[in-house]
Design brief:
globular, 6-stranded antiparallel beta sheet, binds 5-amino-5-deoxy-1-O-phosphono-D-mannitol, 8-stranded antiparallel beta sheet, 20 helices, about 600 residues, single chain, alpha/beta
């Protein structure tokens, strides 16, 4: 949610624009850049995508210092006036901000009473005004005084005419610092900064960063030095080389990523000793959106393996509800980005109450990973399409392996079955390759789905989470109304919506429940709905979307793939912007 970047060094303007393209997945409502040159700070900003910004920045514009922003609107409409950066009224400061200044209204009223005039409806502009008010010959002091007045979440990068250096403040929004290749960099995303930086550091909360040609310094709000370690940046793939949409590329990576997720888990293991594992009385699987759906899926499997409660919970609900937590609680926090505000808040709550916290994430250096006692890396590789795909499959692999280990230690799963399931993970890539190789069938089915007035996804037990994920994928990128239900629940209300023009996608992977699903299909077909059935079995009255049979405990990893493809092709047929659906952003860093 909003991407920020700042750099001092050669090519600052072109590199900032390149970085913003990379960060566009974080928000694409508007974008802007401030460049420091001989004439002071100059801001260019515009509504819409980064390309619109590139189009208005003068060709060949030079400057050794630049800061940039790509926005997902929280306060104020989507328009150029609300785009970042913001000048202070005297134009001696320019700021970009990711997060929410929760007390901005109080601060704004105070500033207005002192004569300030605002040019935007954002919370972020307040910061530029405060910096001007607090400046008294020392920029660091002005930043400290400003930071102390802010509440909420923020990563703010500040350029000023008073000082050659860039300043930044960080609390609860990500801020990575990089050095190398003749430059210093401040950025929301570690992968983005790693294309230039040789060394990177993750800024701790409540820290001020000062970067300049003489190095990088970290301070607390009182001006005391803070020790932060740099580590080697990892190699990253060049985004510019990706042809077509990220979503389809990321779906096609699933087989290989599953192999890597298993390899990584086998390398790192459970990271909890047997005595600790035996003492747990409950397990939570906490996340949002797709990450929550992976928790839902794994909980359905784990209930078959374990002797304790395994509860999937939506992070934003967990924060305000009264789920029991004590030292016998193990909570997994599932998040591709490791930045999702709801998930991080839920993690803080479990920590406060003495539970064991375990991040399952694609971003080892994320805030979530830092907040948790343990971290499992799902090894999905960079995921840029807003619709999460390969991360879901890798979350399932990692979490299922974690659950198998917990069950083995607790003695609720015999070693033979454990070995069989762990070995069966190796069969998944080929099974998924078979689906991907036949994706033209799914593309054809998209022609049917695109004209549906609504699409309902149904499944029972471990197939219900797959239905939930298939439905989320379809609605978020095609904008077709869609819901998921446990199949048996339809007759308790939703059946009233079945009529001509409605689509139903039934997921039926469990041979023992075949007859039940056949009945549900008959019920909806009788009311005029068109049914597609994702199954290794054949069903009357349903268009088959065949999937290979794999181990029962792992089938969810495979069954979701045709649904990811169906959502993709349907959205394409409708001419949607598949990678950047309306109103959404990849990382949701606000509660
Ligand atoms: O980065 P996270 O895994 O924490 O993100 C959680 C959700 O915001 C995310 O999965 C969202 O639901 C996706 N857009 C779904 O495709």
């Amino acid at each position: 949610m909003c991407g920020i970047f700042g750099m001092i060094g050669g090519g600052a303007v072109s590199n900032t624009l390149r970085a913003l393209k990379y960060l566009e997945y974080r928000g694409y409502d508007s974008a802007g850049i401030a460049v420091k040159g001989d004439g002071g700070l100059k801001i260019y900003k515009t509504e819409g995508r980064i390309q619109n910004l590139v189009d208005i920045v003068p060709q060949g514009l030079q400057g050794g210092t630049a800061i940039g922003h790509t926005r997902w609107a929280t306060h104020g409409a989507v328009c150029a006036e609300n785009a970042h950066p913001f000048y202070s009224p005297d134009r001696n400061f320019a700021v970009v901000h990711n997060g929410i200044i929760e007390n901005y209204l109080t601060l704004k009223e105070e500033l207005i009473s002192q004569g300030a005039e605002f040019s935007s409806a954002t919370d972020s502009e307040t910061v530029a005004h405060l910096l001007m008010r607090e400046y008294n010959g020392d920029v660091l002091e002005a930043v400290q005084k400003t930071a102390k007045q802010l509440s909420g979440s923020f990563a703010i990068v500040i350029a000023t005419t008073y000082d050659q250096r860039l300043f930044a403040v960080k609390r609860r929004s990500p801020l990575v610092v990089g050095i190398g290749n003749g430059g210093v960099y401040l950025c929301s995303d570690i992968r983005c900064v790693s294309r230039w930086a040789e060394q990177v550091a993750v800024t701790p909360d409540n820290t001020i960063v000062v970067t300049g040609s003489d190095g990088v310094y970290f301070y607390d709000y009182e001006g005391n030095a803070v020790q932060v370690d740099f580590f080697d940046a990892e190699e990253v793939e060049e985004m510019e080389q990706v042809k077509g949409e990220f979503m389809i590329k990321e779906i096609y990576e699933i087989p290989e990523r599953i192999r890597l997720a298993k390899r990584e888990y086998m390398r790192s293991g459970l990271q909890l000793n047997a005595e600790t594992v035996r003492k747990f009385k409950r397990i939570y699987l906490i996340g949002c959106g797709t990450a929550y759906n992976s928790g839902l899926q794994v909980a359905a499997v784990a209930r078959k393996l374990l002797d304790i409660d395994v509860l999937p919970v939506i992070a934003s609900e967990f924060i305000y509800d009264n789920y029991p937590v004590d030292s016998k609680t193990l909570a997994f926090f599932i998040s591709q980005s490791g930045e999702t505000a709801d998930t991080i808040r839920a993690c803080e709550k479990v920590k406060e109450q003495g539970g064991c916290t375990y991040a399952v994430t694609n971003t080892k250096s994320s805030q979530l990973a830092y907040a948790c006692d343990r971290t499992a890396d799902i090894s999905a590789g960079g995921e840029f399409a807003v619709a999460s795909t390969k991360a879901y499959n890798c979350q399932l692999i990692t979490l299922l392996l974690l659950m198998l280990d917990v069950a083995k230690i607790r003695g609720t799963l015999d070693v033979e079955l454990y070995d069989r399931v762990v070995a069966a993970v190796d069969e998944l890539p080929e099974a998924i390759d078979n689906i991907l190789n036949d994706s033209y069938d799914i593309a054809r089915l998209a022609d049917e789905v695109k004209d549906c007035s609504a699409v309902f996804f149904i499944g029972r037990t471990t197939d219900y989470p797959t239905a939930a994920e298939g439905s989320l994928k379809l609605k978020e990128i095609s904008y077709i109304h869609s819901e998921a239900y446990p199949a048996g629940e339809l007759k308790h209300g939703t059946l009233a919506l079945m009529e001509e023009g409605v689509g139903v996608v039934a997921i039926a992977t469990d041979g023992d429940l075949k007859e039940k699903m056949a009945l549900s299909i008959k019920e909806v077909v009788a009311r005029g709905a068109k049914v597609i059935c994702v199954s290794p079995y054949k069903f009357e009255n349903a268009i088959p979307l065949a999937i290979p049979a794999v181990d029962k405990l792992l089938i969810g990893v495979v069954a979701v793939v045709p649904l990811q493809l169906l959502a993709y092709y349907t959205a394409k047929r409708l001419g949607r912007d598949v990678d950047k659906p309306r109103n959404l952003a990849k990382s949701v860093t606000v509660e």
